[in-house]
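Let us work through a complete example step by step.
Step 1: write down the sequence.
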Amino acid sequence: MASWKQARKLRDLLGELRANIAKLRRGLTSKSQDILAHADMLSELSPEMESQMLDGLANTVVRWGLETPAIYFLETMKPLAVYTSSLTITVGAPILEIFGISGYKYAALFQKRDSVERLMRRIEEKVRHGKAVS
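Step 2: predict the structure and record it as tokens.
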């Protein structure tokens, strides 16, 4: 008799576990959709905002003296920039937002294929003219 009671109890626990997993999946799906909707909202950056963001990144790279490694890295990663920005939207952007960095905006910026090239040009211009703003 005890084994039947244990079997029923186990069956009930498994049913509850399945229900909780289904709720969790629905919750994660809705969270992912919220994140993607937020990212779509930010994907329409103004040209002025894009320019400010690229200048800020270029200034930071030049100020830290990382021009050569940054250009090497950007040149290497240029073909993957669009895919990396898509990954950033779902994984990295929420983490960056915790630290006060607008991760969704940067992900939206780098979804455009020419953004990496524009950033490299800005870094090169700042090095050439010695204009890193603190």
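Step 3: interpret the result. The chain has two domains: 1-31, 43-129.
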